[in-house]
Design a protein that fits this description.
By secondary structure, this protein is of the alpha/beta class. Helices cover 37% and strands 17% of the residues. It is built from seven helices and eight strands. It has helices spanning 12-16, 29-42, 56-69, 92-98, 100-108, 121-138, 150-161, and strands spanning 2-7, 49-52, 73-75, 143-148, 178-183, 190-197, 203-204, 207-208. Strand 7 and strand 8 form a beta hairpin. The longest helix has 18 residues, at 121-138. The model is unreliable at 205-212 (pLDDT under 50).
Length: 212
């Protein structure tokens, strides 16, 4: 099984540095261009089916990929972004000012952090794990693409690689990035083939993104 994991394209809140969480913020113009470039890149790859978060920024990214690859899209609630509770709609600097101790814990020990009115990483893991087990059981000979969000994608990658949630900050998920994992034989889990690749956003058929 090959599993491709994509983060949605850019939104205005991404550009401004605001926590989005479950807020349904659309792609901005740059995010739409990123989704187009990613779709063009994946048009030459084998993609059997796509699972997407229901939030517009992810689903619109998935639709662009589906248009280019002709793979069907299935919407899954489990792929929603982490609910950041009282932090949603706030700039990173505002969270630092209003919740200094909690913000420091979030950066130092994310697996222990309880954001007011939000989800913990353990709660996110609990909702994505049955979905991942479903994929492994039903699509072990397919190429599956997931379109999610920065936070939930990190939790998914930790789960598939057998890493503790304390590794949450050890890797990045940039807008419209592509990560690829492949299953190992003998029920030995997954290996990481590609992480946070964004080369397709800079050059495609000799043109830079800014030219599109």
């Amino acid at each position: 099984m090959k599993l491709m994991i994509v983060r949605h394209g850019e939104t205005d809140w991404n550009r401004e540095g605001k926590y989005q969480g479950k807020m349904d913020i659309p792609l901005n113009d740059r995010g739409l261009r990123q989704a187009y470039l990613l779709g063009e890149f994946l048009s030459t790859k084998k993609v059997d089916l796509i699972f997407s978060s229901p939030l517009r920024r992810a689903l619109d990214t998935a639709k662009m990929i589906s248009l280019k690859t002709r793979a069907p899209i299935f919407v899954r609630e489990e792929l929603r972004e982490i609910h950041f509770g009282e932090w949603e709609g706030l700039l990173v600097e505002e969270v630092k000012d209003r919740y200094p101790g909690l913000f420091e814990e979030w950066r130092r020990a994310p697996e222990k952090t309880i954001i007011p009115s939000g989800e913990t990483l353990s709660m996110v893991l609990s909702r994505v794990s049955p979905f991942l087990d479903f994929l492994v059981s039903n699509y072990n000979d397919r190429t599956v693409l997931i379109v999610g969000h920065g936070g939930v994608n990190k939790v998914i990658i930790c789960r598939l690689l057998g890493l503790p949630l304390s590794c949450y900050w050890k890797f990045r998920q940039d807008n419209a990035s592509l990560s690829v994992l492949e299953s190992l034989s003998g029920d030995r889990g997954f290996c990481l083939r590609k992480l946070n690749d964004t080369c397709h956003l800079h050059y495609f058929n000799g043109f830079m993104e800014e030219a599109l």
